[in-house]
Design brief:
mainly alpha, Serine Threonine Protein Phosphatase 5, Tetratricopeptide repeat, elongated
C-alpha cells in the first residue's frame, strides 16, 4: 500500500512538472498562483516522502530512477537527502551537477557536494573530485594532489581509481611503467577498461616481457580474455585481435 501511494504521488508530481513548469506562459495574474501552488506541492511531497520512507529506501528508489534515466525525479528526491548530510546522496548529487543530469550543469555546486561527500570518506566523491585537479577545472591544476586523492581510494580497492591513476601516469606524466602497475592492479580486480589499457601498453612494448614478441603475446592473451566478454572493451579487443593476427 505504501509503495502504491508513492507511485501515485510520483505520477501527480510528474504531471505537475509538465503542467506548471512554465507558469510565465499563463496569464500574469494566474502565473503567481500557479507558482505558489507548485512550490507548496513540492514542499508537501518532500515532507511526505521524508516521513514515509527511510533514507536507505529513498536511496534505493533514487538508484532505480537513475538506472531508468529519470533524472528529474531522482534530483527531486536526492536533494533533501544531501542537505541532511547523507554521504551517498551528496556524492551522487555532485556527479549530477558535474554532468548536468536532472539539474543544470554547475561546476561550483558539483565541487561543493563532492567535497562534502569526500570529507565523509566517500570513494565516489573522492574519485570524482580528483577530476577537478587533473583538468584544472574550477581549481588550480595539481596532478600530485589528484594522485594523492586517488591513491587513497585505490588502496581501498577502488578499481576506478586504479585505472584513473594508470591513465594519469600514462597521459599526464608519460610514465608508462607506473601506468602499467596500476592497470595491472585494476585488471586483476576484473576491470575491463584497465585490462584493455594494460593490453595496449604490452602491445606497444612497455610490458614485463624480455622481448617485443613476449609483450605482443601477452597483449594477444589479454585481448582474447576481453573478447570473451560483452560491451565496448570486448568489441575494441576483437578489433585489436584481428589486426594483430593478420
Amino acid at each position: 500500500m505504501r509503495l502504491y501511494k508513492l507511485l501515485v504521488l510520483f505520477i501527480i508530481w510528474g504531471f505537475s512538472q509538465v503542467a506548471f513548469s512554465s507558469p510565465a506562459e499563463f496569464e500574469p495574474k494566474r502565473a503567481g498562483l500557479f507558482s505558489k501552488v507548485f512550490l507548496a506541492s513540492q514542499q508537501s511531497l518532500e515532507n511526505y516522502f521524508s516521513s514515509q520512507i527511510s533514507d536507505e529506501q529513498a536511496l534505493k528508489l533514487i538508484r532505480l530512477l537513475i538506472a531508468q534515466k529519470k533524472w528529474q525525479a531522482a534530483a527531486y528526491l536526492i536533494q533533501p537527502l544531501a542537505r541532511k548530510g547523507n554521504m551517498a546522496a551528496q556524492s551522487q548529487l555532485g556527479i549530477m551537477y558535474l554532468y548536468g543530469e536532472g539539474v543544470p550543469q554547475n561546476d561550483e555546486l558539483a565541487f561543493w557536494w563532492l567535497n562534502e561527500a569526500a570529507d565523509k570518506g566517500s570513494i565516489k566523491g573522492i574519485n570524482n573530485l580528483a577530476q577537478f585537479y587533473v583538468n584544472g577545472r574550477l581549481v588550480k591544476k595539481s596532478i600530485p594532489h589528484a594522485i594523492k586523492l586517488l591513491e587513497k581510494t585505490a588502496n581501498s580497492d577502488s578499481v576506478l581509481a586504479m585505472t584513473f591513476l594508470g591513465w594519469i601516469y600514462q597521459n599526464q606524466l608519460n610514465e608508462p611503467q607506473n601506468a602499467l602497475k596500476w592497470y595491472e592492479k585494476a585488471s586483476e580486480k576484473g576491470d575491463l577498461q584497465g585490462r584493455f589499457l594494460l593490453a595496449e601498453l604490452y602491445e606497444q612494448g612497455y610490458g614485463a616481457g624480455k622481448t617485443q614478441q613476449e609483450n605482443r603475446n601477452k597483449a594477444i592473451d589479454l585481448y582474447r580474455q576481453l573478447a570473451q566478454q560483452k560491451g565496448e572493451y570486448a568489441n575494441r579487443a576483437r578489433v585489436k585481435l584481428e589486426k594483430l593476427m593478420q
